[in-house]
Specification:
single chain, 17 helices, disordered N terminus, alpha/beta, elongated, about 45% helix, Rossmann fold
Length: about 450
């Protein structure tokens, strides 16, 4: 594969809405043919009845003009048939628009275009994305335009903020990362994001943290669904159905996890142990080793099945130690990734994170994954190759840009793509990243087929 190749955007001209109805595979033409056959038979039966009436019943002279008897019979057939076909086509199109309009964005695309895109996504590749936080939801927001066969596998180690409070008070899995994934994959993303990200004001809240102050509405919604359905995973599935989510969102394990970090304290020149996801990043020391409690937490079975059946498994960008690695440490997840039949890609961050990966290169990220989950987990790495940007007003916690190094060791290969957000170059552009994943996956499959062909020869 070409390391510096970038996915080129499609410049194909969009087909007119009428031609979309005739596109192969959207499941419309067969029913149109059946409808036309039914109308033809109905018309034939009605014609026999009218002929019998016309020949035997005394009719006023006006019927001679109405039935165009003054024209040749063949011309009459063509004229009446054309008018009838036009009326049927108009009725079918208007009826379909009325029935299917709710499934198309108002003012943005036609019903035919919406159906075409829906069918295209249905036939898209099976993508499994593993991670948590903003990085995972960013990738999901872009990939849902290419396929509906998406499974997001999300960490359950969050213990801070609203998620941490709900975890302690209600005994549910922390819903924060799941909330972001639901919002990213929802059909009406803009409205769902605004609703789910809404946080209740802390004004007037009690000092002990009780009440709604600081809670995100999406966290409360998922927690309520979990209580109503009897389990977090069922509540998450019901939430996804209510909000028309494309794909599935699964926990890596249904057992709440506590992260344990071994940190190198450079001041004291000693290792210290810190427990809790919210404390590790802000501890002010380098992370040398990460583990989870309980260490034998089993993977959620549906998550394992999704990984094994995927066409592509993506280790999503985001916090390396507190979003991605906790999933890989769950018993069974790393082994399932190694056994997966599809390509296994790691989308490396475009910037380092202060408190987790300060000074890290792309290779350092890869080695950290291998140090915790073992080798042989990644077929290729997607890294940002566009460094022609100016970094201004970076948010707290963001370090420096991770430079693309074409001379890095070839195992696993590092593939360069322009994947940065032009407005915020310290993070991924969701659509660029999705295109990079689709392109890299296709290239990998083509390379596999070529290799298999040489083996057969």
């Amino acid at each position: 594969m070409d390391r510096t190749s970038s996915p080129s955007p499609s410049h194909r001209r969009r087909a007119p809405a009428v031609s979309r109805w005739l596109t192969i595979g959207i499941g419309v033409k067969r029913w149109l043919v059946l409808l036309l056959a039914g109308i033809t038979l109905l018309g034939l039966g009605l014609a026999y009845l009218l002929i019998d009436v016309y020949r035997d019943a005394p009719l006023p002279g006006v019927f001679y003009t109405l039935t165009l008897q003054f024209l040749p019979r063949l011309l009459r057939a063509v004229l009446f048939g054309g008018i009838g076909l036009g009326l049927v086509a108009l009725a079918v199109i208007r009826l379909s628009q009325s029935l299917l309009a709710p499934f198309a964005r108002a003012g943005s695309r036609s019903v035919a275009e919406a159906m075409y895109q829906y069918r295209q996504r249905e036939r898209g590749p099976k993508i499994v994305a593993i991670g948590g936080g903003t990085g995972l939801s960013t990738f999901l927001r872009g990939i849902k335009a290419h396929t509906s066969n998406i499974t997001a596998i999300v960490t359950v180690a969050d213990d801070g903020g609203s998620s941490g409070r709900l975890r302690r008070e209600l005994g549910v899995l922390p819903p924060g990362d799941f909330r972001q994934c639901v919002a990213a994959l929802a059909d009406d993303e803009a409205l769902t994001t605004h609703l789910f990200q809404y946080r209740f004001s802390t004004r007037g809240s009690s000092d002990d943290g009780a009440g709604l102050g600081g809670h995100a509405f999406g966290n409360l919604f998922i927690a309520a669904m979990a209580n109503i359905t009897g389990s977090f995973e069922k509540g998450l599935a019901e939430s996804s159905q209510v909000l028309a989510v494309r794909g599935r969102i699964l926990p890596s394990t249904v057992m709440p996890l506590t992260l344990v970090g071994e940190l190198q304290d450079h001041t004291a020149h000693a290792l210290r142990r810190v427990e809790g996801e919210s404390l590790i990043t802000h501890a002010g020391a380098s992370i040398t080793r990460l583990s989870i409690k309980p260490e034998d937490a089993p993977a959620y079975p549906d998550a394992i099945r999704a990984i094994l059946d995927a066409d592509a498994v993506i280790l999503a960008p985001g916090s390396l130690y507190t979003s991605l690695l906790p999933n890989l440490l769950v018993r069974g997840v790393a082994d399932a990734i190694r056994a997966a039949r599809g390509v296994r890609l790691y989308a490396c961050n475009v910037a380092t994170q202060i408190g987790e990966t300060s000074g890290y290169s792309v290779v350092d990220h890869i080695r950290a994954i291998e140090r915790h989950a073992g080798a042989g987990l990644i077929d290729a790495v997607i890294a940002n190759s566009n460094d022609d940007v100016s970094w201004i007003n970076t948010p707290p916690g963001v370090g420096e840009m991770i430079r693309f190094d074409s001379s890095a060791p070839p195992d696993p290969p590092i593939l360069g793509y322009d994947v940065i957000d032009a407005d915020a170059p310290w993070r991924h552009d969701s659509h660029k990243l999705a295109l990079a994943v689709i392109h890299a996956s296709s290239e990998w499959r083509r390379a596999e087929h070529r290799t298999a062909g040489r083996r057969r020869v």
